[in-house]
Structures are given as C-alpha cells and as structure tokens.
C-alpha cells in the first residue's frame, strides 16, 4: 500500500555554499572597475560646485589646459549635448551633466578635467578656477517648511490613503499615542567607490563599471547619447557594495562617455569618498508624525502616518516611509500621507530598504509606546493586530508568518521573563533593557531574461545580466541553475554583469535573486525540452533562453512581503550616555533561502546597519554653506567592529509560490525595524523615549 519513495536527490539550494569568487577576493586577485588596466587609458577628475545655488559665471580652463598631461576640460560651454528624458522609471535631470550653467546644490558636477594620469587630472581639477553668481539657498529641512507639498504622481510614489473615519476612531480610542519621529540624512558608503571606464571599440560603446545592473546602465546611456541600446555594452567584474547608490545616478559614467567620445581614447572617472556624499544619492532626512488609537485591550482603531522628507530642486525623490504602516497591522481607519520639501541639496535616492527603514523606526517605536500606555506586552500587542488580508489594499497575502517570527524570536531571545518596567535593571553602572520591533520588506520580482547553453562536455553555461554586489549572487544563481538542470553546481558556469546577455532586473529592491532565478528556471525548462531529442550535443552547444515579462504580467495581485522580528538588548551608562548593544536577534520569514551562508551574512549586514542607524549615522548639513560638515568617513560615523556585538539572524519556514522560485529576497529587510528595537530597548533601560535618531551620547538622558 505504500508507494516506493523517490530516490533522494541532493538539492543544491538550501545548502551552504561558499562564494565562487571568495578565493579571488581574499587573495586580492579580484579586479574592481577602478583597477582594470586599459591601453592608452586617460583619467578624468570631477570638479564639483562649492556654492549651493546660482549660476556659473566663468571657468578659467586655459590655465589648466597648460598644465602637464592635461588633455581636456569639459564644462557646460563645450560638453556634448545629451538627450533629455533618461532615467530609471521616469526622467531624472541629475543625468543631464554639464548641460547648463545652473548650480542646484553644493557638490554638483561642473567640470571634468581629463589628463594622462590620475594625479595630473586631480592637480588640474584642483587648479581650475570657477566663479559663480551666487543666489540665496535653503537647505534647512523641517516638517512645517512652507515648501512642503504632496509628491508628484510617479510610478514610485505611494498614493495617500484615507480609509474609515480616523478622527472618530481617535476620539473613541481608550489609548492614544501621538508622536513626531525624525531621522537624519544618512549616506551610502559602499566599500568600493564608484568607477567607470568608457571607450569606443569597433563602433560600439563599451563601459566597464561598478554598478547594480549593467543592462539598466546601458539603457540610460543609450537614451542620453541617442544610441541604439545594442551598440552599448556595459559590464562589471566585481562590485564592492551598492545599496541603491550604483546604477541610477551616474554622473561619472556619463562624463567618461563624453570624454572618450571627444578624445578617442579610453577614459576612466572615479569618484572620491567625499564626492559620493553628493553625487550618488542618500537617504533624506524624514519627519514623521504617527498617531495610533486603540481599545483598552490593544486592538488598533486607527493608524495615522504622515511623513515628510527632503528632496532637491533637480528631481523629486520621496522617502516612502508609509510603506511600513500599509502592511503591518490591521486597523479600522487609516490616514497616510507622503510629502516632500524641495531644497537646494543633492537629490536623495534609494538606500537600503528605502522608506521601510525610517518608516519602521517611527511605527515600531509608536507601537512600543502604545504597549506601554495600554499596559500590554509589546509582542502581545503586535499579535492582537495581525491582519487577515492587506490592511490597506484588502489583497490576500502571498504568505506572511510574522507571528511565527515574533513567537520564535521571543522563545530564543528569552522574552518570557521580561519585566516590563523601564529603568529598573542594573549591571554595575549600566542600565539594562530589551526591545522588539517587527520588520517587513516588499518581495517583488522584475522582468528578466536568461540563457543557458548545454556544452558538448556535459557542463552548462548560464548567462544573465545579474550583478553580484557582494551578496553572493553568483553562487546562489549557480545553485538555482544546478537544481533546475538536475546537475551538480560544479557543472554550472555562471556568467553575469554583461549587458550583452540581455535585459534583467537590477540588484535592487531585494528583487534580484528572485527575478534572475525565475528566468534561469524557465530557460532550464526550455533547454531540457530541447535536449530531450538530442543524441550528441554539437561542439557549439545547445542554447535555450527565457524572458519572464509575460509570465509576470499574467499574475494575480498579492501582498507579497518578507517579514521579521528583531530583538535587542542594550546597556546604557547613565553618566556618559554611552549605549552598548549587547546582543541582537533577528528571526525572518523570507521565503526559500537559497544559500544559508550568504543569506545569513546579508541579514546580519542589514541588522548591523540598523544598529548603526540607531546609534551613529547622521549627516550634519551646514545650512550656511549648504554642504555637509561631515561628508567623509572621518566625520560620518558608521558602526565599527567594536560597536557590534554577536548578531544572530535566522529564519522560519516560509513557503510561498507567488513567484515559482519561492524566493522573497533578503537584501534589505535586515535593516528594517532594527533601529526601533534598539530605541525601544533604550527606553526599557532608562525610561527615556527616543523619537529622534541617532541616539547619540549627548541625547541619551
Ligand atoms: Mo536597493 S536601495 O534597492 O539597492
């Protein structure tokens, strides 16, 4: 009566695999875009504006052209004209480099000096005298700024929400929390600064770059320079981090292309660490008002979340902080607003878990305040408000498992013994406290293509324009391909980061692996069909490809997210104000985990950034000059090893087939909720509530 079990097949996915490029990275053999030699390479050095607003009056290029090795000075008076309208999901005027004399912020590109050596280019840039007609500027962000306005309709803007009767629900609530939360300007600091080399080869534009998506960069360059996308080839070898800063803002890439077009030789432009603070996007300051109203038993009647963030005068970027309040908890009424204030500062951009990271700080702090007000355990409060369907959309969840994360986390962290009273635990001079917060991040999939070749020797070659920005994407994709082809991963060669492989989603939005995996799996199905009739594979191999665009379009709508619960224990020295995080635990529901080794690294990396956001990171904008007072790694603090305790990340079973790969993506969720868990723990330690980040020494008590 029992059917014989199928023979066990070892699955490559789900098992830990060390990185394919691990050896070349630790031995220093791995080449990054700034290291790769090219014959006849010339070097460009960017000159950026020193004033916050105005017009360029003069550029004294003759003196610089006379310097040794200097080949050209590009500026708005002589630069190639670019086609307007290029951008990622809509036109981005930041890409229109050197097109006019307007200066919209400190650090705006105003010239490129090209020379034989990098040192000569830098010396030329330092010597270039530029005068400006300055105009008054405003970089002071505040939620009651007269320029505050609703976001322009854009594919990326979250519409306002008015559901139910928030005012009536607030009036009827037994417990109300009403708080203003702020987060400061925060900056991307990928280990590898941006770099692009451009050259013309056999009638094609070739760019060797550090980016999160070579096809997206090729598309943008094709539009800007009025080229057919097939005549542009963009590729990377290794990429040392991106986090949203590599591929959408690329003034250095645009200038490298301009320079090579004018000079007829390869040109490379690197960004300095300081230039990264104004040219590649950042997380804007936010001011968020959260009002929660609940019955005495903690059931939420209303969630109000109004968020304002700074943007530039060049291009609108809105930090979508209400993403978190749209999905986490059920309530009878919602009022959600997203507002922006255009200021004379660089345009912000996506930065790891855009919207989710600052939004979760406000909402998860407010939930902790509500629990304290209502005399409820913070986890019990969250469980009480678990929704059946998307709280705002009414759409079914593709899967959820937030409850499992909270319960499993509570068990492993030792939450059950917690004394809810704040400010009563001591360890010598330290006050101790624990805190919790929920995490979530959208689990999207974008259209991608992939191709697989069955080689005559029995191995397979996979080509997909994926990017491995340090995540281990190469390794994970080889595991996925191996399972789809029913072959060991050692038989799979994986080629990525080359726009010639065709369109693919970028390493962004926590969508990369899921998007590429789907295309690879479809290509594997097509290839296996082709191979079924083949006796001998010819020397050139047999290739099949796939494009998931139509498959994606055919899906029903779902609320598809990863979830998590983060726990933190802190010690606070009431004399010095020092906050030490003693331990963090994150339990996540992130679909199928392809490679536990690299997945854990991603989650721990995100949680480390959450700690850094809670305690350290803060751009200090000087409103007199309009620039940053701490725009480098000497002044802008990120968590160092000594700040980071043992961080533990793990996951619960989370079966989800909304995309057939079952992968949800986990590059960003690790940062979501971390800052709130720490702020809530600081309250539990000290009895002092922190609604403004970072919780630096001077602000603790
Ligand atoms: Mo990420 S902010 O989607 O690179």
TrEMBL record:
<dbReference type="InterPro" id="IPR016208">
    <property type="entry name" value="Ald_Oxase/xanthine_DH-like"/>
</dbReference>
<keyword id="KW-0500">Molybdenum</keyword>
<feature type="domain" description="Aldehyde oxidase/xanthine dehydrogenase a/b hammerhead">
    <location>
        <begin position="27"/>
        <end position="136"/>
    </location>
</feature>
<keyword id="KW-0560">Oxidoreductase</keyword>
<dbReference type="Pfam" id="PF02738">
    <property type="entry name" value="MoCoBD_1"/>
</dbReference>
<dbReference type="InterPro" id="IPR046867">
    <property type="entry name" value="AldOxase/xan_DH_MoCoBD2"/>
</dbReference>
<feature type="region of interest" description="Disordered">
    <location>
        <begin position="1"/>
        <end position="23"/>
    </location>
</feature>
<feature type="compositionally biased region" description="Low complexity">
    <location>
        <begin position="1"/>
        <end position="16"/>
    </location>
</feature>
<dbReference type="Pfam" id="PF20256">
    <property type="entry name" value="MoCoBD_2"/>
</dbReference>
<dbReference type="InterPro" id="IPR037165">
    <property type="entry name" value="AldOxase/xan_DH_Mopterin-bd_sf"/>
</dbReference>
<dbReference type="InterPro" id="IPR000674">
    <property type="entry name" value="Ald_Oxase/Xan_DH_a/b"/>
</dbReference>
<dbReference type="InterPro" id="IPR008274">
    <property type="entry name" value="AldOxase/xan_DH_MoCoBD1"/>
</dbReference>
<dbReference type="Pfam" id="PF01315">
    <property type="entry name" value="Ald_Xan_dh_C"/>
</dbReference>
<protein>
    <submittedName>
        <fullName>Xanthine dehydrogenase family protein molybdopterin-binding subunit</fullName>
    </submittedName>
</protein>
<dbReference type="InterPro" id="IPR036856">
    <property type="entry name" value="Ald_Oxase/Xan_DH_a/b_sf"/>
</dbReference>
